[in-house]
Amino acid sequence: MADSAAEARIDRALVARVLLNDDRNAFEQLLRRHQGMVRAQLRRLLHGDVAAADDLAQETFLLAWRKLDQFRGEARFSTWLYRIAYSCFLQACRKSPRSGEHADASEAERLPAVEHAIDLQLDFERAMRRLSAAEQSVLLHCVQMELSHEEAAYVLAVPLGTVKTHAMRGKAKLKTWLAAWHETADEEQTS
Amino acid sequence: MNQERDDAIEALLRKQFDGPMRDEGFSRRVMQRLPARRRRVRWPLWSGIAAGAVACWLALLSSPLPRTGWRDWMSGEWSGPAILLLVVALGMAMLALAWGVAEAEDH
Known about the structure:
The structure holds 2 protein chains of 2 kinds. By secondary structure, chain A is an all-alpha fold. Chain A has 2 domains: about 1-95, RNA polymerase sigma factor, region 2, helix turn helix motif (Rna Polymerase Sigma Factor, Chain: A, Orthogonal Bundle), CATH 1.10.1740; about 105-190, Orthogonal Bundle (Arc Repressor Mutant, subunit A). Chain A contains 10 helices and no strands. Chain A has helices spanning about 1-20, 25-45, 50-65, 75-95, 105-110, 120-130, 135-145, 150-155, 160-175, 180-190. In chain A, α1 crosses α2, α3 packs across α4 and α4 crosses α8 (about 150-155). By secondary structure, chain B is mostly helical. Chain B has a domain at about 65-105. Chain B has helices at about 1-15, 25-35, 45-60, 65-75, 80-105. The two termini of chain B are about 45 Å apart. Chain B is elongated. Classes of the chains: A mainly alpha, B mainly alpha. The interface of A and B includes residues 124 and 175 of A.
């Protein structure tokens, strides 16, 4: 917690340096501090498309540079960046809807049947894709990126209640679809 | 059991997330594309404020209301113009207070 407060202070100081002195080095530091997570966020949202994720990440940081004076400190700088990145992602989706987005849905319908699938990771990936886009985004931000529900609501620009509902529903669905794995694990533990 | 399964799902989700990506020249590429920062021009705001103030002054110049209100206020006589002047002053003070509070919340 103290670490995160210190990180936020450093970010605010760097932002102030950029705004007051047009300090490009300060912006480069901000960029180096946050590029990893922003690119990981976008890569996840784009289901592993690294090139598209990097293009959007570049667009995100160029927008952040232009709009830096609009950063008022009401959220952490990283959260503000995730919000810009998510909005770039939504715009890209509107421009070119990804046809393969839910292509795995019918395949995933068969999940419970593959009770003893070789790779849990693969099943999990397919189960994730079977979730709605909103549930995937909420689980990405709340669980994988470890943002609070409030921060996720800010990034996704949705009400807090919606975030909580999607998080709960998403986890419940995953639990149901992957129940076979749990039963196997339970059986293995008892035997 | 239910909590355990929740934890297991969360653990799987975290495991599936690769975490921050390595830079591998990304920052350098972005920095090369960074345009020059445009300074925010402040003169239109201040010109607007000055023009508004002059327009108000010109509009009220021919009216006896402000002078009468001010004179009555100073002599402690609560006439219509004095009360009007007081209401305007209070209104402006409230607006300034609301703006100050909003700015403080933002920071």
